[in-house]
Amino acid sequence: MDKISSLPDEVLVKAVSTSLLSKRREVLWMWLPKLEYRCSDFSVPQGQMLREFIDLNLPLHKALESLRLKFSHGAIGGIKPKYITLWVSIAVLLCVRELSLKLFSFANSQTKLPCNLYVSKSLVILKLEDDIFVSVHRMVCLPSLKTLSLRRVTYSCENSLHQLLSKCPVLEDLFVERDKIDNLEKLIVMVKSLQRLTLKMCSPCYLDGIMINTPLKYLEVTDHRLESDSEDENDSDSPIFSYSFEDMPKLEEAGFVLTFQNIKRYFGSITSVTRLSLCLGVYIEPALYSEGIVFNHLKHLKICSCDSSWSILLARLLKDSPNLREIEAYLIDYHPDRRVEFPNKWDSALNSVPRCLLSSVETFKWTEMYALQNQMDTATILFAPSYAADTVDVMIQELSLSSRGSKTCQLIFG
């Protein structure tokens, strides 16, 4: 009986069509540049069949460029972490350029990476996710690595990440996500070649601080950690918020989604941005950025309206962004229940009309709008789908009768 024919659909490589599973498969299989194996909720026999298939075919490849393994919620025994380690080692020996591992609750222990991975000369893209143990080899050197993604992995010690990054001389894109105690303490990113950095820290996630010293063009930070009320720095349950962001004169785009962290710790380092996206958990005056900071290059601003005081920051940014062209008020996807009325402190936050509203702003877009109490000069307004048609008609009529900044100004409703 042909074992390949008996394999379940989810374990077959999607890049291989039915026409390839013929008598010529032994030859054609060796020349496939990209392999992807994904399997979830598999039984022990299915895992054993898949393991035998990969064991037999992977070492025979002649032109392997990309290997992706995605296993989750499988029966223990069919595929063990040691097999993943072996396959990764073989892929490195075959000079693979892209390696992606996503291993979630498919075994009773984490998967360790082989030593030869840390000295690969061919690897350009490396993506690791979930149940993976990163133990950086002391001779680590990844001279070709340009993209690195580390999502919810566990490190062998607090210096593992810093040691790894220090040996990636051409790294351009870094993604680090943490959501548990992963043996990291201070998150240090010092890579001269880095252009894009994405950081995600969920709660619970304990971190002594963040230090970034690299000439970035793109920065995204999501931090959902809860600020402790404890004043005792020796309290192990109290996260210490220590930010150190060097100036980023080349930064073009930045986005921040923060919970209970103030923005003054790093706003002075991002004044060169042309695009800025914000969702903050603290909008009170002491948490805002310092007076005197001006965003001369900012042209596109997005701000989440999930808090009743979000207008305080918006008014501040309008005042300090003289060349702003586009403004968008929106709600992040996972904030569907935090809809609030348009700014309850708008008038008190602005003593005069900001310069950008008189000279440069071309578009104001407001999605998930629930009420309007003030005038807008240029606006595209999208109403929440839950609104009744008659309610929308009344709001459109009221808005249409509002005064305009100029005779050419138009309101567009969607």
From TrEMBL:
SUPFAM superfamilies for this protein: RNI-like
Source species, domain of life: Eukaryota
All copies of domain FBD, residue ranges: 355-414
TM stretches of this protein: none
InterPro entries per record: FBD, FBL13/AtMIF1-like, LRR_dom_sf, LRR_FXL15/At3g58940/PEG3-like
PANTHER family the record matches: F-BOX/RNI SUPERFAMILY PROTEIN-RELATED (PTHR31900), FBD DOMAIN-CONTAINING PROTEIN (PTHR31900:SF28)
Protein's name in the database: FBD domain-containing protein
Source organism (scientific name): Capsella rubella
Taxonomic path: Eukaryota, Viridiplantae, Streptophyta, Embryophyta, Tracheophyta
